[in-house]
């Protein structure tokens, strides 16, 4: 039986653009079997939308807080959100909103 899926939106602040953060997030989410996307925001943050089991989402948050070696994460905020069927399969890097 498949565990109930949930969705979360994470906003990551710090030195997280131009350091490979989106690729890091995509790789971490893929290893955890999560669906969703990552993208840069105009205000310098990175947005991560992820859907999957609660345990995998918690593990993703821990990875997002650590970040890639070239970046510096100052904070990660999290909010519950609705499941979006458009991003139900795979994890993509979306176009920047710059």
The gist of it:
By secondary structure, this protein is α+β, with helices and mostly antiparallel strands. Helix content is 24%, strand content 37%. It has a single domain, classed as 2-Layer Sandwich (Alpha-Beta Plaits).
Written overview of the protein:
With 98 residues, this protein is an alpha+beta fold. It has one domain: Alpha-Beta Plaits. 24% of the residues lie in helices and 37% in strands. It has a 5-stranded mixed sheet with strand order 4-1-3-2-5, with helices on one face. A hairpin with a 5-residue loop joins strand 2 and strand 3. The longest helix has 13 residues. The chain is globular. It starts with 5 loop residues before the first strand and ends in a 5-residue tail after the last strand. The model has no long low-confidence stretch (mean pLDDT 93).
What key phrases describe this protein's structure?
2 helices, Alpha-Beta Plaits, 98 residues, alpha+beta
Reconstruct the topology from this structure.
Layout: E1 6-15, H1 21-31, E2 35-40, E3 46-52, H2 54-66, E4 72-81, E5 91-93
Mean pLDDT: 93
- Individual helix count: 2
What about the largest sheet? 5 strands, mixed
CATH class: Alpha Beta
By DSSP, the count of extended strands is 5
User: Roughly what percent helix?
Assistant: 10-25%
The spatial strand order of the largest sheet comes to 4-1-3-2-5
Strand portion, in percent? 35-45%
Low-confidence stretches: none
The domain tally reads 1
Distance between the termini: 41 Å
What pattern of helices and strands is seen along the backbone?
A: EHEEHEE
What is the overall silhouette? Answer: globular
Radius of gyration: 12 Å
What structural class results from the helix and strand content?
A: alpha+beta
């Amino acid at each position: 039986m498949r565990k109930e899926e949930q969705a979360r939106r994470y906003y990551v602040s710090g030195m997280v653009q131009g350091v490979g953060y989106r690729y890091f997030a995509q790789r971490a989410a893929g290893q955890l079997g999560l669906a969703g996307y990552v993208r840069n925001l105009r205000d310098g943050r990175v947005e991560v939308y992820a859907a999957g089991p609660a345990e995998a989402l918690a593990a993703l948050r821990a990875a997002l807080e650590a970040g890639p070696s070239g970046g510096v994460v100052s904070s990660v905020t999290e909010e519950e959100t609705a499941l979006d069927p458009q991003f139900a399969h795979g994890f993509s890097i979306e176009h920047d909103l710059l």
